[in-house]
Each structure stands twice: as C-alpha cells, then as structure tokens.
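Entry for the shared binder. Reason: the reviewer on the internal report wants the predicted structure included alongside the sequence.
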Amino acid sequence: MAGTTVADGGLVEQAFSAAAERFGVKLGSGEHERQLAYVRATMGESKISVFRHLFGEEEKAQYANTAFEEAYGALVDGGRIAPVPGAREAVERLTAEGRTVVLTTGFARTTQDAILTALGWQDLVPLTLCPADAGGRGRPYPDMVLAAFLRTRAVDDVRRTVVAGDTSYDMLSGARSGAGLVAGVLTGAHDRGRLERSGATHVLGSVAELPDLIARAEA
C-alpha cells in the first residue's frame, strides 16, 4: 500500500525515528543513521521483522513495533497520507473489468485499517491482508500473495495472479509466489534497477498504468 497505492511522504521514516527515540537513539546520531539505512533498505518487509533485526530481543522488538505503529497511526490520523494519483481509479477499473483486487501491507492490521479509514477505502476491495492474516510471515515471503490466491479463488492458476509494488521485497514476494506478472512502480522506495534485480517483469511509472499492462498481456 504505502508507496504503491498510498503516498505517505516518508511517514515510515518519521514513525521509525519516533520509535527509536523511545530506546534512547538520538536523532542524527550514527546509530540512528545506521538503523534508518536498514529501514530504507528493507522497505516492504514486515515491520516486526525489521525491529527484530534491529533490536534483537523479542520484547524490545515488540515494544519498538508498537511504538512505530502508534507513531504512524497518529501521522495518518493527522491527514498526512493521500492516494497515489490514479490509484483508486486503477482499482475501480480493474474491478469493473471483473478482476479481483487485494491490498496487502507490511504494517499491522491496526495501521492498515487506519490507512483505509483515512482514505475512505474501507469498501474499495473485497480483501485486505497484513502479515498476521497470512500466518505471520510478511514479505519477501510469498505468503500474502498466496493467501490472496487461496482466499479469493479468483483465478485457477497462480500464474494468472499479478503483483504490483514499489519495493524489492514486493518483487521477491511476487516472483516467489509464481505470479505471472510482477510489476514494480516508481512512486515509492526503490528504483528501476533494484526492482528489476529483485524479479520485476515490468516497471511502471505508477500503479495507474497497471490496468493497461494487464490488458496488453492478455491481448
């Protein structure tokens, strides 16, 4: 969602910095910059997995994750997010064409719901997934893609599944799931080279171009 269908203006980094401060990590310090670099490199991964890597102990990781979710939620409630231009229209077109769209995220369910509410997207798609909805493993594992495939029963072959995202972890997840199209978009965290190296079959300017890509592939 963030970076692909949702423009959050760097709120992930802001929320992370707020969480890190609770552990006494001073903003602008070498430790803060090291941790922030890791957060940037792993955009798209389940956030609890990121905090487990950074803070080690499960208790600390859970505490940091809660602090992050609270900080991100407050920023969302403050009106700091917006749809990527053309994203809602793309979803509505795909739906009108008889396709099933699922929104996935590395955030926790509470944060995902806050984003959907802030955008008025609660009824935009029939299914939304976070890592906990797919057994607890987020990207780069393929679990959320496969959970969408199994739960919707929209297609009879995983190769008819399309994955779109803005991070290398999205691309890895799509490639590992066996999706027929894995489309990277340039509205978020990672550039064309990194998306392609991680398994993108196509790279688009934004998700607004996705319906046309699917139409061309089917033709």
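Summary line for the report: The mean pLDDT is 90.
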